[in-house]
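anyone seen this seq b4? input:
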Amino acid sequence: MTGVQQVEGSTGGPIDVVIAWVDGADPKHRAKRKRYLADPGGDADPERAATQDRRFSDNDEIRFSLRSIHNYAPWVRTIWLVTDDQVPAAIDRRRAEQHNIRIVDHREIFRGNEQLLPTFNSLAIESMLWRIEGLADRFLYVNDDMMLVGPVERTDFFSNE
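predicted toks r here
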């Protein structure tokens, strides 16, 4: 992605994209998940569907998702990639920063509430996204398997443009 692109006639300010991403095959992440599921605490009984490996799989979709945002939504200011102490293999951090892609760890968005970590619950993670330092007031939240397949405008998402 290139820097901020001004959209003529736009009055709404910057728009960012937040992407949740995880590599469930990462040995450290698998071990953390396994440890948590072995002793979820209290009388908790994790929902079976929420523990399936496929919920945490990484099929390199992030590469295509980022490329689609770059190609079809050039007006996006910053892409925030929310991860659990991971960086996708497809991403070179230095190049990513040049293209306004920022990696945000769960510890950042849960700061002050670290006792709640680790969490593998996407709803808990989503509820903390607003705590990303520097996040635009208006943002799109997507998962790593979302790909734009054609040009989109700011007004496709926000009516007060």
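Confidence is low (pLDDT under 50) at residues 1-9. The chain is about 25% helix and 15% strand. kinda curious what u guys think
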